[in-house]
Amino acid sequence: MFSLALLASLLLTCHRADALNNSVQKLPRLGYNTWNAFACNINSSVVLGQAQIMKTSGLLDAGYTAVHLDDCYANLNRTDGKIVANATKFPDGMKNFTNSIKALGFETGIYSDSGWLTCGGYPGSFNNEATDVETFAEWGFEYLKYDNCYIPFDSVTRQNELGRYQRMAEAIAAYAKKTKTLPISLALCEWGWQQVQLWGKTVAQSWRVDDDIEPFWSSIASIINQASFIAPQSDFYGHNDLDMLQVGNTVNGGNLTIEEARSHFTAWALLKSPLLIGTDLKTIGKDYLNILLNKEIIAINQDPVVGASITPFRWGINPDLVSNSSHPAQYWSGQTQTGVVFMLLNTLDTPAPLSFNLTESWAIRAGRQYHVRDLWAHTDNGTAVRNLTVTVPGHGVAALLLTDAGDEPASAGLENECAVWSQCSTHNGTRLDIPA
Ligand code: GAL
């Protein structure tokens, strides 16, 4: 006998048959990655220092439960065919390093490459996939970011990109089977070219959708534009990875304003991207830290019932469905376990009113009214009937959660309204879109 709960969980796990479900990483991964703040200047005390701050600042409690090493942790050459951790950077060895990270309460992640070398010139895993999976697992890592530099000639691979990533996915699966352990979570870093979102989900739990992010509004807007066309590819067990969070980062002279950082964080979270902090937490300002700690936004990213991303229902300044990296889609919505979430982006430099009819979103029920919750102000803002207008600062965002508040009031005089006028008719066939 099927219980309803079992049936519901089967439906949820099965509804994306094209996603790789090997029981790991149902939800987007939340944590820290070393690259954007430290590049190759990493060592165990730098990373442990960041992990400590994750804990004391409340980030761990807020759900950022992983700490990932990126490139440059290894010796330049393999020894006896194996990748070796650099003893100057990790004097106690990698196993002790991951033990220390785990003792603080975190999961761990590491980095390699599907070519001969990593992008920083360290050993890549091509042709050494099985050996390296074993090394990474023995070191204690549960997650692997897998890059795309220094790729072998076609005469060597006789494969496309998918083939090189498949080799690692297969090595991970084989190791898990042999050791009866959970597979390492695989994160593709392929910069989003060649339709990676279509094949990425057959081998991995996440796939990058664009080039490296930078702490400038132009970079944020451009990634949101790219993501607007592929947002539906994210769901449980497979996520568009919009790249690391630049909230409060000052590398290369960049810095997002608070409004820009809020837009960045809202978009990444609601599009169900992994949320990997790429900032030096020793220098992050309190205002920026508070953005990363927005629990109402994180809860939507980590929704255990709805895996789908928000999607645009109207582009706004830019015509619908047209790519524009300065003016990406502005009006977005999606379902959550508690209501319908709206993200309204102001891509202009100055404040602007953003208005929409509620039923422009597929997730809204016509003829109903909705309680409005502001997910940044953390206030309840009354009830919306039919439409909403919000004034949003330049490069800023409004994130609103609408929950059903029953039939709209008759006093509003809204009888005979239609969410969709075309074909809307009285019972005897008088059409509202055709004048009598
Ligand atoms: C890039 C990647 C970055 C970082 C870097 C390391 O290809 O996009 O996120 O991992 O390589 O060298």
Automatic annotation (TrEMBL):
Gene3D superfamilies referenced in this protein's UniProt entry, alphabetically: Aldolase class I, Golgi alpha-mannosidase II
EC number(s) reported in the record: 3.2.1.22
First-tier enzyme category under EC: hydrolase
Reaction(s) catalysed (UniProt annotation): Hydrolysis of terminal, non-reducing alpha-D-galactose residues in alpha-D-galactosides, including galactose oligosaccharides, galactomannans and galactolipids
Q: Alpha galactosidase C-terminal domain location, by residue? A: 327-402
**What domain of life does the UniProt record list for this protein's source?**
Eukaryota
Could you tell me what this protein is called? Alpha-galactosidase
Q: Key word NADP present in the record?
A: no
Q: Which residues form the signal peptide?
A: 1-19
A molecular-function term among this protein's GO annotations: alpha-galactosidase activity
Supply the Pfam families for this chain.
Melibiase_2 (PF16499), Melibiase_C (PF17801)
Q: Name one GO biological process term.
A: carbohydrate metabolic process
Q: Which UniProt keywords apply?
A: Disulfide bond, Glycosidase, Hydrolase, Signal
Q: Does the keyword Chaperone apply?
A: no
The entry assigns this protein to a family as follows: Belongs to the glycosyl hydrolase 27 family.
Q: Which InterPro entries match?
A: Aldolase_TIM (IPR013785), GH (IPR017853), Glyco_hydro_27 (IPR002241), Glyco_hydro_b (IPR013780), Melibiase_C (IPR041233)
